[in-house]
Design brief:
The chain has 439 residues and is of the alpha/beta class. The protein has 9 helices and 18 strands. Residues 418-439 are annotated as: Disordered.
Length: 439
């Protein structure tokens, strides 16, 4: 089950199962020949057994106990830090945390307690303890090199998209940097691109480019009903780690949301726990695009035992992240907009509880959670993406990062046996064996 539980306060997700749903069936193209594969994302990426802060401490989701328990061993001597007064940013963070603390604590306890009788968040250990995949991603560097290529004038820009794989399985003529690429097949496809193998979900479109080369996405000619983005916010941690390039908040206003959004499009933006970023999204960014804020939701990160991955009251990292939901409103689109009665209202302060990926900056998919608010046939777009989703369009300078074969288990299968297994699975689903719990 990808959606383990849907309750009045939010959802409990199995993020790895959400990914796997898009990879059956799967084929691999090699030398113009195709073969069937069993494909699944490496589950060890979602096996977080212990809280990150210390092996001897734990953050309980119970009866209001959110503080770190005292160490049983003798504490090591540490150099005393000089006391300093809180700056305005730290004060704002504390005020915001105190405002939402009870929502996070009570909602998480309720959802975790509801999910555990269903066999989830009980400390599942049925996975081999293998090392995490560590593929070096050079996609951002390739995008930087592509910036030396001449820009195509708007009037000359070729509209539409190119197919990822030809009838003969060839991908040699695909230009990933200047035109949207599509996999129109009904199955996932393993292809060789730029000398590396990637697993591409079915009915997927993507553009590999940086912020200065987003025009082909606009010329793709599609208006989207859902736009999700996880911007590379500037902060000290990113600067120190140099994991990826950050983007000044002011630059986000240049994103062509009004050219990409359909009337009443649901716009979702992941925000760091810095209050200044949250204020910027609510008070500057969304109004600049003509987006009306409708809700703030929280992603709560827990271990496989259902405990917070960080203490809830930690002065540094928190076990939750915020994302802001808004509706695109534009006076020019009033004549095209559906009636207000047809728009499903978005509830405020809902929680999504899941075990986070051990891979840096891999967010859970929101596709199943947001479906009731956008419709089953909605056209969906992810900006600053680092992976692909079935049926979605994705853009970013590392848009294929987590599609590299090193993140997947690929096993050759007998096509006849696989077809029989699929039929059995569909029969079980039809009988209600795979429906998520509700409370």
């Amino acid at each position: 089950m990808s959606v383990v539980l849907h309750g009045s306060l939010g959802w409990v997700l199995d993020s790895c199962s959400l990914i796997d749903r898009g990879y059956s069936p799967c084929i691999r193209w090699r030398e113009n020949q195709k073969s069937a594969l069993k494909c699944s994302f490496k589950r060890q990426c979602f096996q977080v057994f212990k809280s990150y802060y210390n092996e001897n401490n734990r953050a309980d989701v119970d009866a209001g106990n959110t503080e770190v328990l005292k160490k049983t061993c003798k504490p090591s001597k540490k150099r005393k830090r000089k006391h300093h007064e809180l700056n305005q940013g730290e004060i704002d963070s504390l005020v915001f945390h105190e405002k939402i603390k009870s929502v996070i604590l009570e909602g998480t306890k309720y959802l975790v307690d509801s999910a555990q009788p269903l066999g989830y968040l009980n400390g599942q250990t049925n996975v081999d303890k293998e090392p995490l995949p560590s593929q070096e991603c050079n996609l951002a560097a390739l995008c930087e090199m592509a910036k030396d290529l001449p820009l195509v004038e708007d009037e000359e820009q070729e509209r539409g998209a190119q197919l990822l794989v030809g009838e003969d399985g060839c991908t040699s003529h695909v230009d990933l940097f200047s035109q949207v690429t599509e996999n129109k097949a009904d199955w996932a496809t393993v292809v060789t691109v730029m000398g590396e193998e990637y697993v591409i979900p079915p009915h997927t479109a993507f553009l590999l480019s940086d912020f200065t080369r987003i025009q082909p996405l606009v010329h793709y000619g599609t208006r989207f009903d859902l736009i999700v983005m996880d911007p590379p916010w500037e902060n000290k941690s990113v600067k120190r780690s140099r994991r990826y390039g950050s983007l000044p908040s002011s630059q986000l206003k240049r994103l062509p949301i009004p050219l990409l959004a359909s009337p009443n499009c649901l716009v979702v933006t992941w925000v760091t726990n810095r209050p200044s970023h949250l204020r910027f999204v609510r008070d500057e960014l969304y109004p600049h695009w003509g987006v009306e804020v409708v809700a703030e939701w929280f992603w709560v990160k827990v271990t496989t035992f259902g405990q917070f991955v960080f203490p809830l009251d930690s002065p540094h990292k928190k076990p939750y992240e915020v994302f802001v939901l808004g509706r695109y409103r534009c006076s020019a689109d009033i004549s095209e907009s559906p009636s207000e009665t047809s728009e499903v209202p978005v509830e405020d302060q809902r929680l999504i509880v899941s075990v986070p990926s051990a891979l840096h900056s891999q967010k859970p998919s929101l596709s199943e959670v947001l479906k009731p608010y956008i419709g089953a046939d909605a056209k969906c777009l992810e900006l600053f993406a680092r992976s692909l989703q079935p049926g979605w369009t994705s853009w970013g300078n590392e848009v294929l990062k987590f599609q590299h074969v090193s993140y997947f288990n690929l096993t050759p299968v007998d096509e006849k046996a696989e077809a029989e297994d699929d039929c059995t699975a569909k029969e079980k689903q039809a009988q209600g064996f795979d429906s998520p719990g509700k409370t």
